[in-house]
Amino acid sequence: QVQLVESGGDLVQAGGSLRLSCVASGTIFRTTTMGWYRQAPGKQRELVARITSGGSTNYADSVKGRFTISRDNAKNTVCLQMNSLKPEDTAVYYCNRAWPAGPWGSWGQGTQVTVSS
Predict the structure, then answer these.
(1) Cα gap 69→36, rounded to integer Å
(2) Is there a contact between 6 and 111 (Cβ–Cβ < 8 Å)?
(3) Higher pLDDT residue, 22 or 1?
(4) What Rg do the C-alpha atoms of the chain give, in angstroms?
(5) What is the pLDDT of residues 25-41, one digit of tens each?
(6) Are the C-beta atoms of residues 22 and 95 closer than 8 Å to each other?
């Protein structure tokens, strides 16, 4: 059973920064492509950043140049550094496996990011 625990969300002013962390257990983390997803109120969950086992990254256009995903395989951790935050970044952020395999059925509790204007 995969367990995902996200942390680091907060209330921040526009233009500010946050660093999210996610610890995964119950899986062979080092070989898994991981991603950060977010879900804003009334919207579908979307993938915003992805990192392969080899460290290659992909980003949604809306966060490109502002967000950076990284991983530490020794600690089973994936992080998301978010800079130049905008009010439209407000959402609950989750980590999970990313494509090509797609997310596991089990999700963590997420971490709330709120950006005030």
Answers:
(1) 8
(2) yes
(3) 22
(4) 13
(5) 988 899 999 999 999 99
(6) yes
Which amino acid type is present at position 37? Answer: Y
The secondary structure of the chain as a DSSP string is: --EEEEE---EEETT--EEEEEEEESS-GGGS-EEEEEE-TTS--EEEEEE-TT--EEE-TTTTTTEEEEEEGGGTEEEEEE-S--GGG-EEEEEEE-TTT---S-----EEEEEE-
| Residue positions counted in the chain | 117
Q: What is the pLDDT of residues 100-115, one digit of tens each?
A: 999 999 999 999 999 9
pLDDT the model gives residue 17? 98
Tell me: pLDDT of 1 over 90. no
